[in-house]
Amino acid sequence: MLDNIPFIYEDDVLLIVNKPPGLMTVAGPDPDARYLTLILNEDAAKEGKTCRLYPCHRLDKETSGLVIYAKSRDAQQQMMDMFRRHSVRKLYCAFAHGRIAQDEGVIRKTIEGKNAVTHFRVVKRLSECTVLDVRPETGRTNQIRLHFKSIGHPLVGETKFIFRRDFSLRAKRLCLHAGALSFTHPVSRKIIDVRCPL
After folding, report:
1. Residue 35: how many other CB atoms lie within 10 Å
2. Which residue of 74, 145, 147, 197 lies most exposed, with the fewest beta carbons within 10 A?
3. What pLDDT shows up at residue 1?
4. Phi and psi dihedrals of 29, rounded to 5?
5. Catalytic position from the list 3, 11, 30, 60
6. Pick from 159, 87, 86, 96: which is nearest to 117 by CA?
7. Residues 30-66 pLDDT 10s
8. Spacing of C-alpha 147 from chain mean position
9. Exposure string (b/e) for 52-73, b if CB count within 10 Å is 16 or more?
């Protein structure tokens, strides 16, 4: 574990960490801002590790949860290919404004002209929000956030795509957490099933 970045899984090929909210995965527009990949590689260098860590995918700055890093460019490429083929199964926990009536469903709406599909299942209905398991079939930028806004149930804590003042329920962060990943290991070919609940 590094500072407040827990290591969830590690072997000779991959490292999976639990990214806190408010931290970019890779460098953003602010050249002085620290980001997850930089922090992890700086820490590895301090410990005398020779390998670099390469991100295999990204999470939004506001989203917390599991991020996979590869310890070589080759492993990174293999993992990125798996993400492109949608063969990495991702499961998120989300809190959406309002009470979603249907117990499960599929949102199919294009994002920037590209096909985007999100599956969801209601876990619990509260007075002002609905707790959901969300599985994106595709991986468009901000997909979950845009899809739930499109059905009139934006995520609690959302500030980028809605006006927070329009909703009575408040949160200090975006209520979206990447809590589970399942995929075939690029070297051992074993099924890796990693979970990191809230």
Report:
1. 17
2. 197
3. 47
4. -70, -25
5. 60
6. 86
7. 888 899 999 999 998 888 888 899 999 999 999 999 9
8. 15
9. bbbbbbbbbbbbbbbbbbbbbe
